[in-house]
Amino acid sequence: MIWNNVYEKGLVDVMHDHKDNPKFKGQNGWNRDGWNSITTKFNEKFPLAHFSKQQLQEKERELKGYYKAIRDSRKESGVGWNDTLCMVLAELEVWPRLIRDHPKVSKFRNRRLSHSLFFIV
């Protein structure tokens, strides 16, 4: 199955629903019960998708990487954030340095976030 914005947002939503339940969290993130529950709930939400636990874990790692790149890039001089558009803002001359220092942020140049990454970290 191929990931799209609907599935990504669905995963973020399911993880957000689980985030306050200590039964599903370990010291460094989700525990086995957490991942099993997230996988079950996600696949119930999208019965035609049927992603494996490993695929969901890999997507979470990818989304966290994007979140961290955006978070860190916003600390750079000449970089801003538009809450309404959910976009990283920077002048044209700032982007080469920004992408060099935070390569994952290049995906979000002139693109808004399609879902909230902030729930998963």
From TrEMBL:
Where in this chain does the record put each Myb/SANT-like domain? 3-96
Q: Which InterPro entries match?
A: Myb/SANT-like_dom (IPR024752)
Q: What name does this protein carry?
A: Myb/SANT-like domain-containing protein
User: What taxonomic lineage is listed for the species of origin?
Assistant: Eukaryota, Viridiplantae, Streptophyta, Embryophyta, Tracheophyta
